[in-house]
Amino acid sequence: MNIKDTNIIGHYINGEFLEPSSEMQTVYNPALGIGKKKVLLADENTVEQAIRCAHVAFPIWRDTPVAKRTKVMFKFKQLLEENMEYLCELIGQEHGKISHDAMGEIQRGIENIEYACSAPELLKGEFSKNVGTNIDSWSEFQPLGIVAGITPFNFPAMVPLWMFPMAIVCGNCFILKPSEKTPSAALFLAELLTQAGLPKGVFNVVNGNKIAVDYLLQHNLIQAISFVGSTSIASYIYETATKFGKRCQALGGAKNHAVVLPDADLDNVANSLLGAAFGSSGERCMALSVVIAVGDHIADTLVKKLKIEIEKLKVGIHSNTHNDFGPLISKEHKEKVEYYITKAEEEGAEIVVDGRDTKPLGYENGFFVGATLMDKISPNMESYQHEIFGPVLQIIRVESIQQAMQIINNHTYGNGTCLYTKDGEAARYFSTHIQVGMVGINVPLPVPVAYHSFGGWKKSLFGDLYAYGPDSVRFYTHRKTITQRWVSKNFIEEKQFSMPT
Amino acid sequence: MNIKDTNIIGHYINGEFLEPSSEMQTVYNPALGIGKKKVLLADENTVEQAIRCAHVAFPIWRDTPVAKRTKVMFKFKQLLEENMEYLCELIGQEHGKISHDAMGEIQRGIENIEYACSAPELLKGEFSKNVGTNIDSWSEFQPLGIVAGITPFNFPAMVPLWMFPMAIVCGNCFILKPSEKTPSAALFLAELLTQAGLPKGVFNVVNGNKIAVDYLLQHNLIQAISFVGSTSIASYIYETATKFGKRCQALGGAKNHAVVLPDADLDNVANSLLGAAFGSSGERCMALSVVIAVGDHIADTLVKKLKIEIEKLKVGIHSNTHNDFGPLISKEHKEKVEYYITKAEEEGAEIVVDGRDTKPLGYENGFFVGATLMDKISPNMESYQHEIFGPVLQIIRVESIQQAMQIINNHTYGNGTCLYTKDGEAARYFSTHIQVGMVGINVPLPVPVAYHSFGGWKKSLFGDLYAYGPDSVRFYTHRKTITQRWVSKNFIEEKQFSMPT
Amino acid sequence: MNIKDTNIIGHYINGEFLEPSSEMQTVYNPALGIGKKKVLLADENTVEQAIRCAHVAFPIWRDTPVAKRTKVMFKFKQLLEENMEYLCELIGQEHGKISHDAMGEIQRGIENIEYACSAPELLKGEFSKNVGTNIDSWSEFQPLGIVAGITPFNFPAMVPLWMFPMAIVCGNCFILKPSEKTPSAALFLAELLTQAGLPKGVFNVVNGNKIAVDYLLQHNLIQAISFVGSTSIASYIYETATKFGKRCQALGGAKNHAVVLPDADLDNVANSLLGAAFGSSGERCMALSVVIAVGDHIADTLVKKLKIEIEKLKVGIHSNTHNDFGPLISKEHKEKVEYYITKAEEEGAEIVVDGRDTKPLGYENGFFVGATLMDKISPNMESYQHEIFGPVLQIIRVESIQQAMQIINNHTYGNGTCLYTKDGEAARYFSTHIQVGMVGINVPLPVPVAYHSFGGWKKSLFGDLYAYGPDSVRFYTHRKTITQRWVSKNFIEEKQFSMPT
Amino acid sequence: MNIKDTNIIGHYINGEFLEPSSEMQTVYNPALGIGKKKVLLADENTVEQAIRCAHVAFPIWRDTPVAKRTKVMFKFKQLLEENMEYLCELIGQEHGKISHDAMGEIQRGIENIEYACSAPELLKGEFSKNVGTNIDSWSEFQPLGIVAGITPFNFPAMVPLWMFPMAIVCGNCFILKPSEKTPSAALFLAELLTQAGLPKGVFNVVNGNKIAVDYLLQHNLIQAISFVGSTSIASYIYETATKFGKRCQALGGAKNHAVVLPDADLDNVANSLLGAAFGSSGERCMALSVVIAVGDHIADTLVKKLKIEIEKLKVGIHSNTHNDFGPLISKEHKEKVEYYITKAEEEGAEIVVDGRDTKPLGYENGFFVGATLMDKISPNMESYQHEIFGPVLQIIRVESIQQAMQIINNHTYGNGTCLYTKDGEAARYFSTHIQVGMVGINVPLPVPVAYHSFGGWKKSLFGDLYAYGPDSVRFYTHRKTITQRWVSKNFIEEKQFSMPT
């Protein structure tokens, strides 16, 4: 039996699918508005079982040479590449994102596996000869034990792949709690890992809700928690995990601004903003949701160009690759997004393109909101202060780059941002002084590549080490420093090793 | 006015000594059992004042080239070397440690300044050419803003020096809350920093108690907290700082074991244990407080040798360099240490040398406990389960190295440990499998040198990045990742820069 | 057509096999003593053709994002794993090494490909913010252009794989001149690279002799030379390549000593020495060819144990995996090895096991020398002073480790060495003070893993950067340092980007 | 006796000044055209003596803990800062450079000492746990032994400081052969090193000519050569040093171009070019000697602005800080520079400002050439193809940035270059594709800071590792890789360390 054969989505523990009788929840196809699949929600016993299996697997995995651990990742990459289409379909059915978008997500995930294949390099400790006379000292980066990842619905494959490949090559065992809205991708990845030769118990998936999360947060065998989700939950996760003495990195919400300077090429800007704002229905923590135009002329021109292009965008089912983006994840979320649009309207924003009441033919029950463009947004509007997480682009008008930067620096979040310009000095000034962790210059979605690390500032990230890349190596290991002296005076002076005569 | 001229110990804020009228507390000379000095305990207004000054100083300090920031540290090192004796005296009067011991503490502290002088190397970001076609990406490690250090009584100079030199060269402003029992060293360091050219407001000292600490923990301008102290407070600090969204590293208690294998040279072992166990009255988080002897023969011999040597040890006033160690920090602490000795005796331990009721001539009111050796300790005794933090060495007897390691791995703490052996395999087996962060092989106090990082495992450290060394650079900075593309197609193909004709 | 279909071994240039009419040389099967295949020897025109193709391919390959270049290596690794058996057979036919030995060689080679997959990490430059006020500086490691590798007969696959995967992922084009005695493996690797998606012209193989080598050494488009072979040729290569202004790393000969201390476990020692001394007929630059026994008792016991084991060893054809090792590479080389044995005998060595006149049944014309053990070697013997490069193990007897180390330090070569002991101090003393680049402690063939670098000292390596591993990244790139300032005073103070009003 | 007391400039060997009777040569004050001092030219015996002392000093220095070696550099920095003015005077008298210029030189040199103080960080080896089961491997970077530096007249303090601080903290002994035209600075540095606590024999200075150089190049105890000078000598040094099996880095000549794009701010450009072209009389390997103006309008404007400013420049004696630059180093060199000006004139260049026949009042016999500006230079002129190394700025006019870059890429040298622009894309295109090692964007003298490395491409540098910075650490050490296994099976399974019963 495998993930392909069933509508009951269980857990993956100790190298096997597991479907204990327990509470269930419907998994919707958001384009259809209905759900045939059901996901099991782990109770505490099930989570405990996963932890126990990981605990048993850990000592052998920890002592497996890193090059051997890495070989599993090389193979996993190959298998994942061979199964990309199937995984796209799984993601599309539960999340609704168009296939080409899911393909991009998986590709990004694979790059994290590729980086994990650098583990022999990344895990090198530092060796110092003669820290004192005849004393050497060195560091080793040893795995923590069992670490857990709690991941969001919007990247069912990529965000887990940010975490577990590196955690695992570092020698840890991993327990993944994916979103209960999009659980299947994680299980399929688990299957491929086993095929790639990963010993059982090293990687486990438990589906569930707050019960499972809280059990993980409090369990004394869980050494570290990686989380990606909304800021309110991230804050709870960080506070709770650390209260129980764990290390924790918790990535939260965002409000990502693009600043458009007068010297920018507005055709390029408009084109690149479309994908950045509306791709994946804006359900990305790096989605570009606010444009700050410097000068009314820039704003007017840009709005005009964007309006034309936005009205051409197509929404619909994931499997039709002519669609530009799909539905939102749930009815509740659709309502929330529409609430923000309406609220902005009431507060004085100008709705240039209105995506409310979007009902693609044949998918009238889907959770769709169309691409929405709102001009004349001001920072005191409710819809500006919160992350909308939908296909909504807001325009703010200012007079100078300094004004634009002040608005950004005043926002609660500091995840990503982008500046459009041709000017080297503007770029350097902006990237130096903006209080945001990931900065694009003419790059609207400045997601760091897999060999750098992902992390925002302010309320966008709690913790000190960022997701994936070099930071994740340090996060998933603890340092051990050995100081060594060999002492018998006899040896050197008196030739202890000479033969007795 | 400076630190040398007064018995009222105030604060150092914005480049000046400050003595607002506020609550005071006596600072004892623990060898005399009396105190002439008084330390001011900051209220919230005073802490706020320090934070405000730091906040004003930050933008200019952040943008000062790193090489210039580093030059301040070069000069600070020089000044500190020139003033070592005075600083020793300050420490001796308040802490009681013998001058040669204080000298060692300062020397270790200076090595942290030296490492901070490597900042131009340590702060290098990672630059990747062509992460995509014509797209470059790089990381910058920018200072956090204002960070705070809360430090213990036992190393009035060294532990602050673990923290602020690196925090400051990274471009941060720093607020130090030293122990109210030994506050003067910090103020003297502040003075030297100003002499070395540090702009005012970059480094500030506030003396105080839990009121000051809590104010720092909750203030939204404080970005990070470094703490060294007991585990109960460390746990509180970590939980509270993280609850307020800050990054935090909190170092707590320890119970450091030495394992003596049958092949060890017992004369060397005995000699090296003396300083490790009794130096600074055992008031060190790396003090060697338990010896696990493998085999009764080893235990018997070692106890005999230790007894002879321990009975020769001298305790007394810090200024007499013939003394081996000084008093404990306070009357309360002396009573607690004596309680643990008495309790162990009641629970069946054998008191080989008894340090209770030690009253050096002329210092009968001092808080002294003499060197104490206890044999036949078992892991279930109360005095074993807790950190005694006094001049008490406990002996446990086992049959094998595995048994010894199991005892260590079962303890709550995992700070330091040491193995005595000549055998390469034993050393490697021990250092690999022991659940302790700092491991010595024939080195009883395996404190990592300044260019490595200090940190224990389990309840000895909360957080993911360790104190000083490479880890501290990452702790005191946040990563910013820039992704940059320059885009006008005109430039390359159409020679935008050629002259119009 | 491909490498599998012909007995004429040509070149691989610009993605294609090429067989220009030119001089030829027989490629022997050394176990049979005859050769059915012929290898073409490139004239200058052919080498020029390869260089020209590489020159054309370079600009596009250089500008291909490193992650894309790396993907070719991921695929190449997979293809090579799928074709290991065929490659073993190719190597066996021309070199004579037993299949399991060839398998090991390829496995080591694959590990170099795996390390090359870390290129995105390894190629990161260093970014420094504010080296002066508003001035940033960073380094980029750009490819050199065309680089060449000249490789020996004894590792037809592994030594090329030390070089070209890293050179290529760094963005260079590569010309390989393999040994004309074992040319086929290189051509097969070229085929697989093309299958893996490498653009044509990036990797080229030219077969040939000194004519080809000299042409490469003198050509101004060749930027760097990597060489592995004998010291006399290495010296010539280094002198000539540098004379023409190129960078060069030239690895030469070796005489690798094992020192056996009295505390070593002699059964283990004897077992591990067998493979180290006789594996691949001793035709390895890391072959363990001298044992220095500390104490006559050790020597006597070891010789006795070795004699018993050596007499059980089997030599023969590569395809019979019961054989322990195969023939030497040529008739001339067999004669040279036998000359050294005879010479040693004349100079007073004791021949414990004599491998001369070995004629395995059915392979009487093969170039075999059996495993040979010589005791009582002294450093002034001719056979000691030179690298024999055959299945000959020499025993030297000394009284102390210091004496042993002096002998090693006096030898011309400093490639590899090994100490057998249980003693931590001896290991540290030996590894610190021995004048040898690669040191084993209880590891007789201390070939560094692929993520470290390979290189000997003294006459074993000319150049400053070693083969493969981290050093090779620096060798195959040149550093470019950019210092950048953006300067218009207008921008910040006068808000150049605000709209004109 | 010290450097201050004599007009006979000898050697510094084994911690002492040495003045053996030998050949002498006059050291000129180039502003006066006469010389009171004489420098001794070492014969082979003197060089041999220096090498022997270094050889004796090496073993102890090598084994001195790196932190102790570094402390010497901290002290040396302090002493040098305290003696900057005296050193300026020494340099001024022999080289002629104006005091503020000498001050800058020394400051740059001190930054190299500061970087050498990072040695504990820089010398860390790489430690890999479990490269195989129970096998660890790590690298150590050990000093080479004795290394030599051969330095040019134009930076009597800075270029030696590029080399020996790092070589020495790495554990090497150093022999410096400074230019015989400006020898005193090196001797003064030697004195300060001794005062800073450097053991005798670790640093030695021999003055001399080709005899001394050749003796160093051929001596088998010299492990590495660092050279800075002209390309013809650099090429000879590289060829000869490598022929004798040494590692070598040899930095040669330059022709550094600035490209001025139409969007550049020409006032800024003109101002910054003055110092870059004429500072230190253009006797810098990073001097900006060619401006390529894109567009005639740019050229015309720039020439006009430059002419005005150049005519204000003052030349004269080093001690008058109102002077902008001083004399050339020698009569011969003055004649050569004037030859190139005359030759350019003959070949059709336009002499805008003519510095020939410059005779400052009171210094009529000095070797002065005034600032010279030549327009309408073409790449085929002799004066363009060679490095003039004088206060001569040449203007080339082109139509596009591509044309400008082609001219630069066609030149023999590839040391430094600069682009003036405001455009981010132009900057990135230029820095990516220009075949030059050190690139400035709006920075006319892009000398890398001390924590990066200095090196040009093409004929500007021979070797693979650059001067100072991270590269120099690798250059001055050889890698040793240890692979270690501890083996007795007894230990783990059979509890070898349990007590016999």
From TrEMBL, chains A, B, C, D:
<dbReference type="InterPro" id="IPR016162">
    <property type="entry name" value="Ald_DH_N"/>
</dbReference>
<dbReference type="GO" id="GO:0004491">
    <property type="term" value="F:methylmalonate-semialdehyde dehydrogenase (acylating, NAD) activity"/>
</dbReference>
<keyword id="KW-0520">NAD</keyword>
<dbReference type="InterPro" id="IPR016163">
    <property type="entry name" value="Ald_DH_C"/>
</dbReference>
<dbReference type="InterPro" id="IPR016160">
    <property type="entry name" value="Ald_DH_CS_CYS"/>
</dbReference>
<dbReference type="GO" id="GO:0006574">
    <property type="term" value="P:L-valine catabolic process"/>
</dbReference>
<dbReference type="InterPro" id="IPR016161">
    <property type="entry name" value="Ald_DH/histidinol_DH"/>
</dbReference>
<dbReference type="InterPro" id="IPR015590">
    <property type="entry name" value="Aldehyde_DH_dom"/>
</dbReference>
<dbReference type="InterPro" id="IPR010061">
    <property type="entry name" value="MeMal-semiAld_DH"/>
</dbReference>
<dbReference type="GO" id="GO:0006210">
    <property type="term" value="P:thymine catabolic process"/>
</dbReference>
<keyword id="KW-0560">Oxidoreductase</keyword>
<feature type="domain" description="Aldehyde dehydrogenase">
    <location>
        <begin position="19"/>
        <end position="482"/>
    </location>
</feature>
<dbReference type="Pfam" id="PF00171">
    <property type="entry name" value="Aldedh"/>
</dbReference>
<protein>
    <recommendedName>
        <fullName>methylmalonate-semialdehyde dehydrogenase (CoA acylating)</fullName>
        <ecNumber>1.2.1.27</ecNumber>
    </recommendedName>
</protein>
